[in-house]
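ok, trying the design again with the full structure, not the truncated one.
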């Protein structure tokens, strides 16, 4: 019964949860990283849109999601095998978190978009590397 009441409250959110669960069920490590990047960029763009339109609850939800994904990406780094690349990515993720939180506090959509653009470039590089 709890599932049905949640579905009635926010069917779009329920669909997103089911969609993500379905995509992650059979994904390997690199595919999961790609999914995290895609979700992160989407959350940042949605936060920018929400900030522009004064939708503070939506912005907060997207900022929370983006921050959680940044922590997950950082937690997945292998510093033993990744060396300097892992260290650089850890700094990037920490800086992105700080930028996102500052943008959220000041309700500024520009840093959300800038961070999304930067991470979309990395996602594109990751996608190209996976395809090779």
């Amino acid at each position: 019964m709890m599932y049905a009441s949640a579905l009635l409250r926010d069917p779009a959110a329920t669909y997103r949860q089911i969609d993500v669960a379905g995509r992650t069920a059979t994904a390997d490590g690199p595919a999961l990283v790609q999914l995290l990047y895609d979700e992160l960029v989407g959350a940042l763009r949605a936060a920018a849109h929400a900030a522009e339109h004064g939708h503070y609850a939506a912005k907060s939800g997207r900022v929370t999601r983006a921050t959680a994904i940044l922590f997950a990406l950082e937690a997945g780094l292998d510093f033993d095998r990744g060396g300097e690349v892992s260290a650089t990515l850890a700094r990037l993720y920490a800086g992105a978190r700080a930028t996102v939180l500052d943008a959220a506090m000041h309700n500024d959509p520009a840093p959300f978009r800038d961070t999304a653009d930067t991470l979309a470039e990395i996602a594109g590089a990751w996608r190209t590397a996976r395809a090779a």
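Keeping the full-length input from now on. Residues 21-25 have pLDDT under 50 and may be disordered.
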